[in-house]
Structure formats: C-alpha cells, structure tokens
C-alpha cells in the first residue's frame, strides 16, 4: 500500500489542487495530512474543504490552532501574526468545527504521524537538526515518524544522521524522522510543493516536488490584506 503524506498547505489552494491531482493520477487512495491547513495564504475554507474530503486523517497544526485562538500568536513572527488575524475573520463555522476536531498525533503500528515534534507535540517544538532528531527518537517507541512544521523536506535517522536521498528504503536496523516538507509554502530553497509517498510494502520513502501555478497564489495574496512578504517568498521557496 502507498500512503501520500502532506503537510503545511497554508491556505494555498493552487498548490493543494496540484498535489491532490498527482496523488489521484498515481491511484494512491490513502492521504494523511500533518496539519497547518490554514494560514499565510487566502483560501483557508477551500483548502479545509478539500482536505476534509480527500484525506483519511488530518492532524492539528499550530496555525490551525492559532486560527481558532487556541495557541498564543505572540510567539509568531509579525507576518505570521498578521496572516492569522486575517484568517480568523474569514473562517466559516464548518471550517472551525473541523479544525477543532483534529488530534495532535496519529499512531499506526510502529509509525507516528504528527505536525511538529513527537515529544510534547502540543508545544510545537521543531526538529531541525540531527541532535534534536536523535533526542526525539530516543524518547519515543516508534521507529518511523512523519512530521512537518518547519517547511523543510529532510530525513533524520538515529544511526545515519541526516539523509540526502529523496528516494530510499527504510532499514529495519534504523529509526527515522521524515519531514515531508510543505505543500503550500516551502522554505528549503525549492519553491515547488513538497510531500512524501510511503510504500508500506517496499518500506520505501519517496519525496515528490511539483510545480504549480504559484503566480496565481502570489496575486491572490497581494490582493488581500496579507503581508506581501508571504507572497514573495513563494517565488523562491524561502
């Protein structure tokens, strides 16, 4: 079985539609979303509608929580705060109810799905380094963890450290944290939408990067009272 794992859509409808179309064409029936469906871009309700329809499981992200005023945005940077305040005014009741229903984690056998760190996921910690990844893996029982949150597509392992491969087989002797990157606002220098396909039979991880109509999302942001920086960073993946 193949599972598509997406994260950090951030109200970018064009990126999400492109990713979902690819997944459909690949005949992948299971989609798990690691959260942050909303924030930054101007299509929160439309993105939530699609995620609710297409994803088997969806987890809570910090921007989802903040849009419900359940996470303190004083810890957000200025641009993220402005985008959250804009988003709060535009969420419809169905979107709010859906976001309120989301859990922090989804365990499945030896695999854990979570938005941020597997350790204290409600605190929204980042896993940005080999050291942080090894610490997290040593605190939990799972051999494979899928995360998002940082918008950087990267894999860390307990034995090998940081992996540079975008297509690899899981070793039964190692343990992994796989950051699937961001569908709607990548920050690893590659502006293409990022997500992962996990083949559970082959035990294979494959990163997918897709070009989408970034100019349309750029223009939609510029037409709204959302910081222009959030539009410009889409163009270079920073």
Structure commentary:
By secondary structure, the protein is α/β, with parallel strands linked by helices. It has a single domain, classed as Metallo-dependent phosphatases (Purple Acid Phosphatase, chain A, domain 2), CATH 3.60.21. A 6-stranded mixed β-sheet has the order 3-2-1-11-12-9, with helices on one face. A 6-stranded mixed β-sheet has the order 4-5-6-10-7-8, covered by helices on one side. The radius of gyration is 17 Å and the shape is globular.
At the first level of CATH, the class is: Alpha Beta
Pairing-aware structural class of the strands and helices? alpha/beta
Distance between the termini: 33 Å
- What is the overall shape? globular
The poorly predicted ranges are none
CATH architecture: 4-Layer Sandwich
Give a short overview.
By secondary structure, this protein is α/β, with parallel strands linked by helices. The chain has one domain (2-236): Purple Acid Phosphatase, chain A, domain 2 (4-Layer Sandwich), CATH 3.60.21.
């Amino acid at each position: 079985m193949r599972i598509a794992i997406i994260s950090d859509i951030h109200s970018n409808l064009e990126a999400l539609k492109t990713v979902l179309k690819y997944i459909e064409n690949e005949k992948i029936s299971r989609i798990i979303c690691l959260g942050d469906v909303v924030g930054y871009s101007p299509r929160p309700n439309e993105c939530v509608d699609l995620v609710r329809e297409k994803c088997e499981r969806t987890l809570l992200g910090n921007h989802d929580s903040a849009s419900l005023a359940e996470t303190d945005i004083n810890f957000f940077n200025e641009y993220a705060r402005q985008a959250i305040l804009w988003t709060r005014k535009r969420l419809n009741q169905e979107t709010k109810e859906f976001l309120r229903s989301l859990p922090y984690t989804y365990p499945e056998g030896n695999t854990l799905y979570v938005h941020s760190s597997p350790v204290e996921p409600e605190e929204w910690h980042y896993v940005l380094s080999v050291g942080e990844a090894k610490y997290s893996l040593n605190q939990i029982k799972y051999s494979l963890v899928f995360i998002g949150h940082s918008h950087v597509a990267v894999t860390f392992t307990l034995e090998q450290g940081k992996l540079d491969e975008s297509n690899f087989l899981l070793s039964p002797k190692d343990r992994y944290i796989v950051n699937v990157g961001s569908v709607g606002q990548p920050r690893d220098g590659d502006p293409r939408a990022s997500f992962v396909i996990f083949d559970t039979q082959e035990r294979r991880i494959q990163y997918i990067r897709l070009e989408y109509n970034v100019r349309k999302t750029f223009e939609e942001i510029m037409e709204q009272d959302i910081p222009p920086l959030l539009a410009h960073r889409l163009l270079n993946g920073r």
